[in-house]
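Weekly structure sync, notes
Attendees: PL (lead), two postdocs, one rotation student
Agenda item 3: pending single-chain targets
PL asked that the sequence for the first pending target be pasted directly into the notes so everyone works from the same version. It is reproduced below exactly as submitted, 452 residues in total.
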Amino acid sequence: MSVPATPEGAAAPPGQPRKAATAAWIGSALEYYDFFIYGSAAALIFPEVFFDESDPATATLLSLATFGVAYAARPVGALVLGHFGDRLGRKKIMVFTLMLMGLSTFLIGCLPTRDQVGTLAPVLLVLCRVLQGVSAAGEQASANSMTLEHAPPGRRGFFTSFTLSGTQGGQLLATLVFIPVAAMPEEQLLSWGWRVPFWLSVGVAVAGWVIRRRLDETPAFAQQAAEEGVVKLPLVVLLREHWADVLRVIAGALIASVSTIFTVWALAYATSDAVGMSRTAMLWVGALANLVALAAIPLWATLSDRIGRRPVYLIGAVGSAVTMFLYLWAVSTGSYPLTFLLGILCFGVVYSAANGVWPAFYGEMFTTRVRLSGVAIGTQIGFAAAGFAVTFAARIAGPGGDDWSAVALFTAALCVPPVIAALSARETHRVPTEALGVPPARATTEPEKVTA
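Predicted structure, written out during the meeting:
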């Protein structure tokens, strides 16, 4: 069977691209608020609440490992949610993932501590963290697919970037919530204060549901479902026709290691006895870096609409390898001005180049019928490795947890696969939406149809 090509952007009702981008931004911000308050708690609170306080180094290592557990669950979630997203539509998955994240995060705030129920406490923590990972697996891929398929000609980079600027907004919100919490007296912080940010996820879930339930399905998916029918087994088609692109996305997704090292390991290192910087100050580093990223991401994405995805992505990947080294060095000196300046440069400016462009770059590698599966599976396998980068960093940093140069070199090494993936990928910023994922020869000779 074949599907008549949809003229790019013609089927989208007026204002729908902006509405889709707004829903993606707000939904992702709410979703990743939940996800990243866990990261802050894993670095600052959970070693003392859920693990053995008599061995602080091991407690921190185990706590950071639970942060990575969600990333291990992501590939499984991607297989399931990617399948249903390409069969049932983008909107249903966007609503489901948000509700699941809100519920699992609220439950974390209700968990008993290790002093109360012993080893059952960390077990329950891991179970809730797995649910967070499953939710996050479908969130970005569905939001990216929604915005890309609604975007007008020549603006796909800009509109899809709202998903990632939304995640930075959620991370900023999570950091701002934790700043007053971290400043609480130790006894109140460890007894009930840390639970408050998790309980607020109820409001997150309700607000997200109201926003996303009003969003229309994309014209591209609706037309495909009506005229061609959906693919019964998206994974089979994906691996048969797009296996090389899936590998590229997996390699490219390792760039997320920069985010996890910056957000979690560097925070734990800076506030450890080895450096002794204050919790509040380091949370402000993250807050300001994310604030800058909110502006930088759409600017980098707009640039990619003009000069291409690959050059902008490469700036982010190569630049992150260099600036992460500088940032961790600044932290090691204990200098607040240097730490603030290089933290904003590394995470707020340079990393935003790759972070802002990958939603369009990855999504444009696939056809409509397997786009959500391709982006979800590829990114979540790569993100799984990125999530455990924090655990490996804690090991690489040595018994004292202060070998920052080894962690910087490790992070730089994880930036190499994304560079290779980008160099081997097809430039797609000027390819019409209906021709995305189609081999260049077929797109040229058969511009009106996409063969099933």
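Discussion points:
- The first strand starts at residue 2 and ends at 4.
- The chain has two domains: 17-217, 234-428.
Action: rotation student to compare against the earlier draft before next sync.
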